[in-house]
Design a protein that fits this description.
By secondary structure, this protein is α/β, with parallel strands linked by helices. It is built from ten helices and 15 strands. InterPro entries: Glyco_trans_31.
Length: 416
């Protein structure tokens, strides 16, 4: 039960009913249960509503005094309402209580338990959007294949040059670590059909600048050509997980949810204790990484998220920034703690819960790393800061300057 006032029932007031719908569960017992007629895989969660539950979940409201200091009255407010409040009241926000209002506020651990067991849920997920895997590796997280570490690389649909460079780097790492079996896949979506580099968010027109936007403009209307390149990569390397979301900067959270569902459904979570997710413009020292993992107690490895943890970051409110967040998307000014997006290590015992929890956690437009922080908060997952993982220019600010590093942006590996 939450430790502040809200007008919804607690999880312990509900009893799980018996059902034998074994195919309607997550993760699937076998991949055949999510395989489609055209040999794709449906990562949308199969959920059924409990017979005596309401089809539409009512809006959750909160006693305003539980969210803001020094307010009068006994008013009950919703997440949607507090996003429209005058900004002055947010100086009196009570953290972390305000984070608990983030949709969808349900007894999430109860719902996860139900879905994992194949039972009906008391509340249907609002964010269980259709996600399909169009292609997956036949050698990584497939059949009885086993690896010491599975690495999921977040790559863009136009990122064939980055993938080429990453493959070459990983081959060198494999040569340096012949006793460590590494499985590497690249996670991508499909080209955007319309709009190029222009996006519309909460009444604002956003222009994605830089190389990512340049490539979107270059290949606008050339989706078939792009997919031919991707298909050639898939045939040649067998290391691409291709999903059906439009692969853009503003859909990175779709990529993150897809990665969680793919790991949950396809990968061996008994043999593997953690899974690494990393951007294609970063690199890792495999030897140092494996030594670090060996130094962490196994139960901690399997139940935690490791990365460079951001604490008390502010929200970008300018529509000119690609990091823009509107007040209606994220009303609070101080972000929930989150693992920065360039790299995370996610424990095997929490992957299924995160994959299911994503269907109950809104991910339209919120940045993927901020989203992971909110999801971890809802699931009470511990975040651990790793000081020798460096994002972009953080590497240049490290101290001492000759200190070792486990993860850093690709350009720094050529100068050390």
């Amino acid at each position: 039960m939450w430790n502040f006032s809200r007008s919804t029932r607690a999880a312990n007031e509900i009893k799980l009913p018996y059902t034998n719908t074994i195919h309607c569960r997550w993760p699937p017992l076998t991949l055949d249960h999510i395989r489609t007629e055209n040999n794709a895989y449906n990562l949308t969660l199969c959920t059924k509503l409990r017979t005596n539950a309401s089809e539409n979940s009512s809006t959750t409201t909160y006693l305003i005094q539980s969210l803001f200091r020094n307010v009068t009255g006994k008013k009950w407010v919703s997440f949607e309402e507090i996003g429209d409040y005058d900004r002055s009241i947010w100086k009196r926000a009570i953290y972390p209580n305000v984070y608990r209002t983030y949709p969808q506020d349900v007894p999430i651990k109860y719902e996860i338990k139900a879905i994992k067991s194949g039972f009906p849920v008391s509340v249907m997920p609002n964010y269980n959007f259709p996600i399909h895997i169009l292609n997956t590796s036949k050698s990584v997280c497939s059949g009885s294949t086993k690896y010491d570490l599975v690495i999921i690389v977040k790559s863009g649909v136009f990122g064939w040059e980055r993938r080429k460079q990453f493959r070459a780097f990983m081959q060198r790492q494999k040569d340096l670590n012949p006793n460590t079996k590494l499985g590497v896949v690249f996670s991508i979506g499909v080209p955007r059909q319309y709009g190029g580099r222009m996006f519309y968010r909460d009444g604002h027109t956003l222009i994605l600048r830089g190389p990512a936007g340049d490539m979107m403009d270059k290949y606008i209307g050339r989706g078939s050509e792009v997919m031919q390149k991707i298909e050639e990569e898939m045939r040649k390397y067998d290391d691409i997980v291709l999903a059906d979301y439009e692969d853009t900067y503003y859909n990175l959270t779709w990529k993150t949810v897809t990665n969680l569902r793919w790991i949950s459904a396809f990968c061996d979570k008994l043999h593997n204790d953690v899974f690494m997710i990393i951007d294609d413009d970063h690199r890792m020292n495999v030897s140092m990484l494996m030594k670090f993992l060996a130094s962490v107690p196994r139960d901690k490895r399997r139940t935690s998220i490791f990365g460079r943890i951001a604490r008390s970051d502010g929200a970008f409110r300018s529509p000119l920034s690609k990091l823009y967040l509107s007040f209606r998307e994220i009303p609070w000014d101080v972000m929930c703690a989150y693992p920065r997006g360039f790299c995370q290590l996610i424990g095997a015992d929490i992957v299924d819960d995160m994959a299911i929890g994503s269907a109950y956690t809104r991910y339209n437009y919120v940045h993927e790393d901020v989203y992971l922080g909110l999801l971890a908060f809802k699931l009470s997952i511990h975040l651990y800061n790793i000081y020798n993982m460096f994002d972009h220019r953080m590497f240049e600010r490290r101290w001492p300057t000759n200190s070792s590093f486990m993860v850093a942006e690709s350009r720094y590996w050529d100068i050390v």
